[in-house]
Design brief:
The structure is a single chain. Helix 4 packs parallel to helix 5 (172-187). The chain is mainly β. The strands form 13 sheets. Strands 5-6-7-8-9-12-13-14 form an eight-stranded parallel β-barrel. It has an eight-stranded antiparallel β-sheet with strand order 15-17-18-23-24-27-30-29, covered by helices on one side. The protein has ten helices and 59 strands.
């Protein structure tokens, strides 16, 4: 066993304060939810739905616009985030990079880092110096929140810390780099176990004491790996079940590439396991299908197989993905990072999260599950069914995971199990056979002490156990219509009362077994008393019924409640139980609580209750649900032309002149040509403009442009204020093309004597990730080279004197509150047209968009008032055109600004996203809001803005208080 203060581990499990603990974790990207008050909403939903841990990436690039400059305030306040996690009772796994990936632009590296000419993710001194800058800052915050404390009086709930991520290159340069990261973390006060996440089970970066052949040892305390098995949805949006759950532990092939087997002395640790998948530009929209593909039943089969294989630390990616607002996304994703996760982008609890509550409930109820080992193969009456059978070496309690054989089977099979259990050899069920219908698994326990009861076995799954004034309350469930059988051990025949439903019972005096038989349908309630055990109330429910129950710990004891869509918190004080949560409709509330609880409040209001025969109290009247509310139409638009850079007389005297400065990019261009790429000039996000002057002549026949635009990036070209054309990088690939080449024949005016002006706008849709540690994130963005010359003849025949302009003030942010992702280099952005307080009174007024716009960018602005009823939590989105189709016939793009915040990009002809959720705090639910749309088009008929409307994406009564995120409202407030 190895010990790091309050956290320790051996080969079987992690231990906290000496107690074996299964880490049941879910990933949350706080940086994809730029309304910090809502971080608590996600954390509360995770905790209430069975998770005991949250995993958190930290995005270096979000915090550092310029080398040496760091900001941890406002939407970047990770100190506040870690405090929230502690307050909500969640352990934390911190993942601070330096490289994180996460489908972020540059994989989370800051923009300025791409200008380094040394290779990233190695021991190159210049790179290490930059990484240390970041780590010094972020480690100081993490250290204060460790479960062991920081030695300065601070303490929190961080239990594990990750260095780097998915580093699949293992040369000596990477080993020295990893050594540096480990030493840096320790020097900065990180005192919990440190791990790395191995991309896809290579056996890379195991602890030094692993003697498994072909592993690559490294400076870590724990070995962790990731995996996304189980297949993917079809392009047409159909789930598949093409592969069985893998055995990456006890029951697998072993070896360096066998998963947990790469490190026999540390517990199985999946730092990321598929809880969904990301989606790409030009798809048909895969998130809802992903939520099914890796949703209900998948979780039981795959996560259960992991647990049976001894993987006692599991973190599911994602629990909440959120929105890649602004210029956060890498080219592999569009704005939505919904991921098909358990909590959707609009913060809706998906059905898969209810299932996770049930699985997490078992883990919390039966601590014996932690650290189990194989217990021998039981006999199964059907060759189409398999059972993983594990036991606790401390208590001999059993875990039996039942799946099809193979586990992706979808048949309907009846079976019985024969096994030597702690209380004897049993063939069970003794009554009607168990059923496994379709793609499914059962998480069964046997030989378990739960409260004061002895559970011999059950074919129902255990969800919750509550101790109430010396009595026990158990909640067990199964699939609707399937038979169930539960056997409890007693010294003599107890008294059995069926309070609700239909349950048969029989007592075997020889064994002391009380056997209950029933069908899972709605709910049955049984009270069992006497026989030298505490009184027991047994709730036997079908799966949907059990999903309506919530457990919470209070100072008065644990409570069990049924009814609301979510119970966030439960607080007992002075005999009053205060519950907070959400209702999606009128809902009855039923409560089982200690006698010390004499009254109840729901979201601050008194709830009148009456006692029931079930030992509970129930609300006399249902809790109120949300009321509908109207949304205003968006018709009063103000419009202005937004590409003045195209005009020949535009004043570009303040722009930077293109020169031959050195660049860190890995993209080559023709020898002797100037450095056109945007990053060396301090422009890393969004659009960039170029203006080039040349002398007209006979050779000025065509302009060839090589550019980097990321996925579906684009370039637009004007000559002397007249639009020449545009080029777009093709979309529709999961691993997109990110560079483009365009050739534009120039009109005759280019060949007239005198000076001419070329104006070029490049849309940069993000820098690549660095997944393969090959500096892919340094691929060039903006123009790479330009060649002006004759159709037949030499390239670069006509010299061009270029200037460049991107985001206002480049790395010196004009709007540090909204920060790095918010703005690029459009003229309207530089002038503050996106801000809510911008004076647009002089703009043209229109009610709808014309069918044809001028080429370039046009800005649309409108204001509207919202009046969401107080005490309701809604998510409101902006919808474009026909939301039933992933793409439009019209070819145009829109940058979406809400109250000054860049909340996404709609590309009409690429898709698939048409609805963009705007979180409260960015959107004012009870006041005035502004929308600014930067619409870019080639000016052809039909390539113009479709109708835009507000839509309600979710609406519940409850929620949390959410304050508006304070940010500059007028151009005068920008730096």
């Amino acid at each position: 066993m190895k010990t790091f203060g309050r956290v320790s581990f051996d080969a079987r499990s992690l231990m906290i304060d000496g107690k074996r603990t299964i880490i049941w974790s879910s990933e949350m990207h706080h940086f994809r939810l730029p309304s910090p008050d809502l971080w608590r909403d996600i954390l509360q939903k995770m905790k209430a739905n069975g998770f005991n841990t949250v995993a958190l990436y930290f995005d270096w690039g979000l915090h550092s616009p310029k080398q040496g400059v760091y900001d941890f305030s406002g939407i970047r306040d990770i100190d506040r985030l870690l405090t929230m996690a502690e307050e909500e009772g969640l352990y934390v796994i911190t993942r601070a990079g330096p490289y994180v990936n996460a489908e972020l632009t540059r994989g989370g590296f800051p923009g300025w880092l791409v200008n380094q000419r040394v290779k990233a993710r190695t021991d190159a001194p210049e790179y290490l110096e930059a990484a240390d800058e970041w780590l010094t800052q972020v480690h100081a915050i993490i250290a204060r929140h460790q479960i062991n404390g920081d030695g300065k009086g601070n303490r929190g709930t961080v239990i594990l810390h990750q260095i780097e991520n998915e580093l699949a290159v293992t040369t000596p340069a990477q080993r020295r780099y990893m050594d540096h990261l480990y030493k840096k973390a320790r020097a900065d006060g990180i005192n919990v176990p440190i791990f790395h996440n191995d991309q896809g089970r290579n056996g890379y970066w195991t602890p030094e004491d692993s003697k498994v052949e072909h592993v690559v040892p490294g400076p870590v305390d724990l070995y962790a790996f990731d995996g996304y098995p189980g297949g993917t949805c079809t392009a047409g949006g159909k789930p598949t079940r093409g592969s069985a759950a893998p055995d990456w532990g006890y029951y697998g092939a072993g070896g360096a590439k066998g998963g947990a087997s790469a490190s026999p002395n540390t517990p199985g640790f999946l730092a990321e396991f598929g809880g969904g998948w990301f989606d790409y530009w030009g798809s048909n929209g895969g998130y809802e299908c992903n939520a099914i593909q890796r949703g209900k039943r998948f979780q039981r089969v795959f996560y259960g197989t992991n647990l049976a294989n001894g993987i006692n630390i599991q973190s599911f990616y994602m629990g909440y993905g959120g929105t890649s607002w602004g210029w956060l996304p890498a080219p592999v994703v569009f704005t939505s990072y919904d991921y098909g996760s358990a909590i959707s982008e609009p913060r809706e609890v998906r059905p898969k999260l209810v299932e996770m509550k049930q699985l997490g409930g078992l883990i919390a109820t039966v601590p014996d599950l932690a650290g189990m080992i194989p217990a021998g193969t039981p006999q199964i009456s059907s060759d189409k069914v398999q059972v993983y059978h594990n036991k606790s070496t401390e208590t001999d309690a059993r875990f039996l995971l039942v799946t099809h054989k193979p586990s992706n089977g979808q048949g309907s099979d009846r079976f019985a199990i024969t096994a030597d259990l702690p209380d004897g050899r049993y063939t069970f069920p003794q009554g009607e056979a168990m059923q496994l219908n379709g793609f499914d698994a059962k998480w069964l326990v046997a030989g378990v002490n739960v409260g004061g009861q002895r559970l011999v076995y059950s074919t129902s799954e255990l969800q919750s156990a509550v101790k109430l004034d010396g009595a026990d309350l158990l909640l067990m469930y199964g699939r609707a219509g399937e038979p169930g059988e539960t056997v409890l051990r007693y010294a003599s025949a107890p008294k059995v009362e069926v309070i609700e439903g239909s349950v048969e019972h029989a007592f075997d005096a020889t064994k002391g077994d009380l056997r209950l038989n029933y069908t899972h349908r709605g709910r049955a309630v049984v009270r069992i008393t006497g026989a030298a055990r505490p009184p027991l109330t047994l709730l036997l429910a079908d799966e949907d019924e059990a999903g309506a129950y919530w457990t919470h710990d209070t100072v008065a004891g644990k409570i069990l409640a049924r009814g609301p869509a979510l119970i966030r918190t439960a607080t007992a004080k002075g005999g009053v139980l205060a519950l907070t949560g959400d209702t999606s409709g009128e809902t009855a509330l039923e409560l089982w609580a200690p006698r010390a609880i004499r009254s109840m409040r729901w979201n601050g209001a008194v709830v009148r209750t009456a006692a029931t025969v079930r030992g509970s109290v129930a609300s006399v009247a249902p809790l109120a649900g949300p009321v509908d509310f109207a949304l205003p139409e968006l018709t009063d638009w103000r419009v202005a032309a937004g590409s003045p850079e195209a005009l020949p007389g535009f004043d570009d005297s303040g722009w930077q002149a293109i020169d031959r400065r050195r660049a860190g990019t890995t993209t080559a261009w023709a020898d002797g040509q100037p450095t056109l790429v945007m990053d060396p000039y301090g422009f890393h996000e969004g659009d960039v403009w170029y203006r080039g002057r040349f002398q007209g002549g006979a050779e000025a026949e065509k302009l060839s442009l090589f550019y980097g635009g990321g996925a579906v990036g684009m370039v637009q070209l004007w000559l002397d204020g007249k639009f020449v054309g545009q080029h777009e990088i093709a979309g529709g690939q999961p691993r997109p093309i990110t560079l483009g080449s365009a050739e534009f024949p120039l009109p005759a005016a280019a060949r007239t004597p005198g000076e001419h002006v070329l104006s070029v706008m490049v849309r940069n849709n993000g820098h690549n990730w660095d997944l393969d540690a090959d500096d892919f994130h340094k691929e060039a963005r903006g123009l790479i080279h330009s060649s002006l010359g004759p159709v037949a003849g030499r390239s670069f025949a006509v010299p061009i004197a270029w200037k460049i302009q991107g985001r206002k003030d480049g790395e010196d942010l004009a709007d540090p509150v909204r920060g790095v992702p918010n703005n690029g280099g459009l003229h309207g952005e530089r002038e503050g047209w996106h801000l809510p307080g911008f004076d647009d009174s002089g703009w043209q007024r229109v009610s709808t968009s014309p069918a044809q716009l001028e080429p370039g960018t046009s800005w649309y602005r409108t204001r509207f008032d919202l009046a969401v009823p107080k005490g309701q939590d809604a998510t409101i989105g902006l919808a474009f055109g026909d939301t039933g189709k992933p793409r439009s016939a019209g070819r145009y793009r829109v940058l979406i600004f809400v109250n000054g915040w860049h909340m996404g990009q709609f590309i009409a002809h690429v898709g698939p996203q048409r609805i963009f959720p705007i979180p409260e705090g960015i959107l004012n639910h009870r006041g005035t809001n502004s929308v600014a749309l930067a619409v870019t088009t080639d000016g052809q008929p039909g390539n113009a803005l479709e109708p835009v409307r507000l839509v309600t994406m979710r609406n519940v009564k409850g929620g949390l208080p959410v304050r508006m995120v304070s940010a500059p409202a007028t151009p005068a407030e920008l730096k």
